[in-house]
Amino acid sequence: MNYRVQWLQTQQSFEVAADESVLDAATRQGVALPHDCTFGGCGTCRMKVEEGAFAYADGELPLAMGEEEHAQGYALACQARAQSDLVISIATGPDSSSATRVQATVAELHMHTPDIYHLALDLPEDHGLRYVPGQYLNICLPGGEHRSFSMATPPQGRRISLQIRKIAGGRFTDGLLATMAVGDVLDVELPHGSFYYRAQDYQPMVFAATGTGFAPIKAILESLLGDADCPPIHFYWGMRSEADLYLLDEIAAWAGQLYEFTFVPVLSRPSEGWTGRRGYVQDAIAEDFEDLSEHSIYLCGSPHMIADAKALMALSGAALDKIYSDSFIFQNEAAAVAELSEHS
């Protein structure tokens, strides 16, 4: 049996069979719903089901969908199956180019910390690509594989900056990247993603990152430097120890260029001499904000942090449609183990 799905924002409609996901049906019929991972882990294809019924094939909520969101009618298009005609609401994406594959040249390569690379790439002079702060690119590897990394700086000519965690045994970070030098060439595809600043919200903002989830947040905040209309910003960054924090001087300098800026590093395994916050970013935010009903929330990093943070923020009154997230879905088991070790 087939059902009809109508997308409110674009007034497009398409047919979906009972045994296929909303995203698969849309893609098959040329309707470009936003998406990234396609297996329920990133949340990019999050939609509000305004009318109709849906279910998930295995009866379980996907990783990137919380109980609170589900109860309010939200679903992930890549996993949801229609059980009736649907009317869905999905905000259209940023004003950026279609994803395009180009060659980029290594311009800088060094370590922020013993575990995190700084990689700067120069795009071709005539690349003509538009992207917005918060989006990511794919580095294309031989054999059709790729690795995804958020761009850590706002658009600034040809140069793109990345923050890349070194993964023991990783094909890219412990293999190809470890042997690269300035002048080498990589195939990249960009832009991707729907994590970006929503100026239309115009309310105080809370940003939370774990690990290199700092990268897209850095790009967004740097794009707001000197903006007289920028609302107050609170930035919480979760790492394991003091040695894992980097670019602290740059973060400190933002305070003089943003209307109102607060930075709170939160360490899960600090030394005895650490006088700052301990634990996890989501808990620190919950402790500091009794009421988040008039805040926009931006979350980036560990899928577990994002899931926990969404639940806690909802308890503090945050509107679910004002919580924006970019969940780092890892390419291999070694990377997943590294992330879980850092934030557990």
Automatic annotation (TrEMBL):
- All residue ranges annotated as the FAD-binding FR-type domain in the record: 99-198
Give the required cofactors: [2Fe-2S] cluster; FAD
Alphabetical list of InterPro entries matching this protein: 2Fe-2S_ferredoxin-like_sf, 2Fe-2S_ferredoxin-type, 2Fe2S_fd_BS, Beta-grasp_dom_sf, Cbr1-like_FAD-bd_dom, FAD-bd_FR_type, Flavoprot_Pyr_Nucl_cyt_Rdtase, FNR_nucleotide-bd
Q: Which GO terms describe its molecular function?
A: 2 iron, 2 sulfur cluster binding; oxidoreductase activity
Superkingdom in the source lineage:
Bacteria
Pfam families membership: FAD_binding_6, Fer2, NAD_binding_1
Q: Which residues form the 2Fe-2S ferredoxin-type domain?
A: 3-94
Question: Does this UniProt record's set of keywords contain Metal-binding?
Answer: yes
Name of the protein described by the UniProt record: 2Fe-2S iron-sulfur cluster binding domain-containing protein
Q: What organism is listed for this UniProt entry?
A: Comamonas piscis
